[in-house]
Each structure stands twice: as C-alpha cells, then as structure tokens.
Design a protein that fits this description.
CATH superfamily of the largest domain: Aminoglycoside phosphotransferase (APH), C-terminal lobe
Order of helices and strands: HEEEHEEHHHHEEEEHHHHHH
CATH class of the largest domain: Alpha Beta
Largest sheet: 5 strands, antiparallel
Number of domains: 2
Helix content: 40-55%
Strand content: 5-15%
CATH topology of the largest domain: Aminoglycoside 3'-phosphotransferase, Chain: A, domain 2
Structural class: alpha+beta
Strand order of the largest sheet: 1-2-3-5-4
Length: 364
C-alpha cells in the first residue's frame, strides 16, 4: 500500500525515472518520512525525501510551505554552488500536494549525510555553530517580515510570562504549592527575561528569518570530513530575532544534562561548548548582525531558557496538555532543569560576554 502511495506522490511531483525502492526514516516524531529511490533512464539510482506532514500538529501547512519556498529559493538563487534544500513542485507550481485522503505531502532532495543528536566533540559543536551562522548569513538580505508567523507570538517571552502568571493567579488545579520556589524565581527575573522581546516589538532589532529549532540534529554533516552541509527542518522558519536562534542552540548544546534531569546538581552551562559554538557561529555570520544584536546574545540565551522554563511550568499548572509527559510532575522536573541552567548562565554572564567579545575580535 505504501509503495503505491509513494509512487503516486512521486508522479505528482514529476520525479524522473522508475520508482525503485523506499525506506522509512524513523528520526523525528511528527511527520512521516521516507527515503525513496528511483532508477533513471541511464540505470543510475537517485534518491529523494518524501514526507507526509502531520496536520494535527501543523495546522497551516500551506503557509509553512510558502515560507519554505521563499527561503530555499532565495538560498538556491544566491548560493548556487552550495548544497541546499530543494522542494520539488507539482505541475501547477506548488511545493506540496493533497492526496485523495486529504493527506499533505511534499518532496525534497536527498542529501547523503550524518547527524548528531548530542555531541561533546568541540569541533562538531563549532561546525554546528558555523552552519546556523551561515544560514543566518545566507538570509541576511532577505526581508523576514514577508514570512507567515505560523506560530503567532512563538518567542514573545513577555507574553509567555504574562500567561504563566495569569495561570498562577488562577491556580485552577491547586498545584501552586508544589512549585512555589520556581514561581518565585521566575517572578524575580520576569522583567530581565522579557526585555528583548519587548524591544523587538518596539522595533529595536531587525526582523530576521529565524529557524526556531536550532538543535545539532538539524544540521547535516559530511560522513567523512564531518563538515556541515546544510541546515534542515525548516517547518518553524518564521520572522523573529536572530539572537533567539543563537540562544536556543547554546541552551541545548551547552547543557551538561538532559532537559528532564531530576538531579539539578548535574545541570550546568558548559562554557567550553559555548566558546566552540561562538567560534563557528560568529565566524560564519561575517558581520551580518548589528551591534545591538551581538550585544544581546548572552541575554537572549538567558531569556529563552527562562521562556522554556515558563512554558514547562505553565503546562504543569494547567494539566500537562502541551508537552508529552511520561510521569506525574514531568513538566515540573523540566522546569527545574531550565531554571538551574538559567541560574548558571547568570553566574557566568560576564565570562560569556567576554567570550562573545573576544570571538568577535578574532573575526574582524
């Protein structure tokens, strides 16, 4: 059944040759992804990626695909000699299709590569920073404001915190008593954490193209050289602040523990990994960011960490409806991990600022 379905999708996207084989790719928890291989007329094999989009998660897939089309075509036009993502189009010019069942499909080029879910190798971390910095550089002259905001107010930290404290005041499930220390800490840093999103709303920072999921496993690497090839997973590409992409990347990469580590004594912010990521990122972005953006990188790291802590805590207080939980109190454990990380970022604030400044000087 799937063989026939994928064959039909390939025909709609005008893939050349004869459908030869397919494999299910199990990485990723949202969309259904398949590597499909075609035998071309000369007997050679060529592979593609076909995905069925989970429209229960992505409610506006056409807007997502329009954003992706804008971004990928801009990169392909301005960087024709580099590996880039290419989403194929149907005969009517769309980079997506609906099948007879109403399922939403897309097709992109396959890039032979490897990925790293987590990594302690500083060279790989630096290369990850380079990949995301280069992605920002490739789109520095692109008007991010024309993109759809597919998740409205996604990184409006100020609004996220307002919602949290509205739910704290309501205390509908009576869970406040179990997390008084967490509520108190986030309340104490509420103004600091919300500063950048308020300034962005006031027009103090450029509207950039932001990836919004800058984890290491969203970079494809060459199998042999371990050099970065291309940034993938563009479903959350939106207008936003470049600093938050940076901050979210190092928040994840530099955390010495899992995001749900119950023993917060194991959680701290690894400055060696931060330095490695900065080296790659700031070396690749080549002055495309403004001074205000560069001066805000460390604060953005703290802010987005608090934002995530507030989201975990808010979900805990309102019944664990957004994030999948594996046991009672799972979201509270996640909250405590992010708070511990944020505290360590603040303890190391001056050192992190110095690392950013010295790295910038190296690349002038």
């Amino acid at each position: 059944m799937m063989f026939e379905k994928l064959t039909d999708v390939g025909k709609q996207f005008r893939l050349k040759g004869q459908f030869y084989a397919y494999d299910t790719i199990k990485n990723g928890n949202i969309n259904s992804t398949y590597k499909v291989t075609y035998k071309e007329d000369d007997g050679s094999l060529k592979s593609y990626i076909i995905q069925k989009i989970n429209t229960s998660v992505f409610h506006n897939p056409e807007d997502i695909m329009e954003n992706i089309d804008h971004v990928t075509e801009h990169i392909r036009e301005h960087y024709p000699d580099e590996i880039s993502l290419h989403f194929h189009h149907t005969a009517d010019g769309k980079n997506y299709m609906y099948d007879d069942d109403g399922s939403f499909w897309r097709v992109m080029n396959y890039v032979d590569s490897i990925t790293f879910d987590t990594c302690d190798d500083l060279a790989i971390i630096s290369a990850t920073g380079e990949a995301f910095g280069h992605f920002q550089m490739q789109l520095a002259d692109f008007d991010g404001s024309i993109l759809h905001e597919t998740i409205p107010e996604f990184h409006n930290t100020h609004n996220r915190l307002d919602k949290l404290f509205d739910d704290v005041a309501a205390n509908k499930l009576g869970r406040n008593e179990s997390c008084e220390a967490e509520i108190e800490y986030i309340s104490a840093v509420r103004y600091k954490a919300g500063q950048l999103s308020e300034r962005y709303s006031n027009g103090d920072f450029p509207v950039r193209v932001t990836h919004n999921d800058t984890k290491a496993n969203n970079v494809l690497f060459d199998r042999i050289t371990k050099r970065p090839l291309v940034v993938i997973d563009l479903d959350t590409v939106m207008p936003g602040m470049a600093m938050y992409d940076f901050g979210d990347a190092v928040r994840f990469i530099c955390n010495t523990a899992a995001e749900d580590e119950p023993d917060v004594r194991r959680v701290y912010f690894d400055t060696s990994k931060f330095r490695a990521f900065c080296k790659g990122y700031l070396g690749a972005v080549h002055g495309a960011l403004t001074k205000d953006e560069l001066d805000s990188l460390v604060l953005a790291t703290f802010s987005i960490t608090i934002e995530l802590a507030s989201r975990f805590l808010d979900d805990y207080l309102t019944g664990d409806k957004y994030f999948k939980v594996n046991y009672p109190g799972h979201n509270l454990i996640r909250t405590r991990t992010q708070i511990q990380l944020a505290k360590d970022i603040m303890r190391k604030h001056e050192e992190l600022e110095w690392i950013v400044e010295e790295t910038i000087k190296e690349h002038r």
